[in-house]
Recover the amino acids of this structure.
């Protein structure tokens, strides 16, 4: 039987009813999810996704969203408002954690023995939850990007205290919400780390996300196709001048963040934690399959 996550999983999406990559990936894995969409796009998504999975973004979330600039409604506000909506929705259902994901993830992988093996159910989400629930001071966790995990190198199963991008498992009772028109992932990660929380980025579990500016819709349509990456990098430097700086790399502007200052944020096991000895594969099996329904593009 498939193993699914304990906590609700949300996709935030705009202008991508036709592609809906993350939705397709999760449906192929038989993982339940909600997708948060703009009210005016509800019918477009309802034509291709079960309406019971679709949540209309509350207009007040966009009106009250802190963009961290003075531009107001003159340009798109990014996905942060929808992510805050998902956070509150999960709390309203009584959950202590929730997942929130971008809408351009094509598949998920387990990295083992230098092989990046595609998964066919939600066990990897359950395992990331299982790890986080052992500790009292993890605020956020998630899988690393496929492209950042080299199959030719030795990699740790996870690293601590860095930014978590695109697929986030978040503890609901932490005193944060998403903010910023850009780079909201890095900003919330840094605010958590500065307050002494830990973040966990898994190398054992990976997401294959389409590169920035490749798929129409979302931030590509609203920001990057028009203005490039300079404004988003400048905003992060303004948010966190103590640890972020502007750099020119790969023929475009980026931000560089020094995470070494957080190396003393140690994991704290929950009191009374008693882990069983030996290994537990949680039902995972390596199976050779043909005609994969969702291959890497």
């Amino acid at each position: 039987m498939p193993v699914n996550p304990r906590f609700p999983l949300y996709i935030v999406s705009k202008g991508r009813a036709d592609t809906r990559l993350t939705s397709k990936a999760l449906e192929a894995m038989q993982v339940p999810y909600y997708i948060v969409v703009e009210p005016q796009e509800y019918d477009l998504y309802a034509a291709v996704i079960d309406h019971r999975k679709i949540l209309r973004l509350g207009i007040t979330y966009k009106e009250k969203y802190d963009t961290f600039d003075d531009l107001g409604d003159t340009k798109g506000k990014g996905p942060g408002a929808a992510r805050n909506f998902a956070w509150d929705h999960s709390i309203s259902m009584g959950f202590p954690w929730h997942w929130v994901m971008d809408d351009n993830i094509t598949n998920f992988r387990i990295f083992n023995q230098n092989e990046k093996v595609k998964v066919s159910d939600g066990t990897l989400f359950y395992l990331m939850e299982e790890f986080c629930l052992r500790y009292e001071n993890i605020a956020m966790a998630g899988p690393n990007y496929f492209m950042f995990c080299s199959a030719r190198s030795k990699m740790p199963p996870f690293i601590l205290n860095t930014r978590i991008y695109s697929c986030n498992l978040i503890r609901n009772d932490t005193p944060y919400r998403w903010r910023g028109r850009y780079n909201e992932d890095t900003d919330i990660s840094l605010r958590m780390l500065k307050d002494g929380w830990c973040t966990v980025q898994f190398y054992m579990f990976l997401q294959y996300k389409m590169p920035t500016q490749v798929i129409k819709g979302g931030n590509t349509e609203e920001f990057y196709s028009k203005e490039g990456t300079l404004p988003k990098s400048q905003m992060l430097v303004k948010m966190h001048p103590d640890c972020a700086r502007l750099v020119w790399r790969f023929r475009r502007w980026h931000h560089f963040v020094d995470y070494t200052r957080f190396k003393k944020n140690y994991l704290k096991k929950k009191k009374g934690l008693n882990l069983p000895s030996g290994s537990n594969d949680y039902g995972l099996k390596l199976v050779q399959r043909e005609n994969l329904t969702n291959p890497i593009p």
User: Anything to note?
Assistant: The helical segments are 21-28, 42-46, 59-63, 80-92, 123-132, 184-194, 218-227, 230-239. The longest strand covers residues 198-209. The chain has one domain: 9-210+217-262.
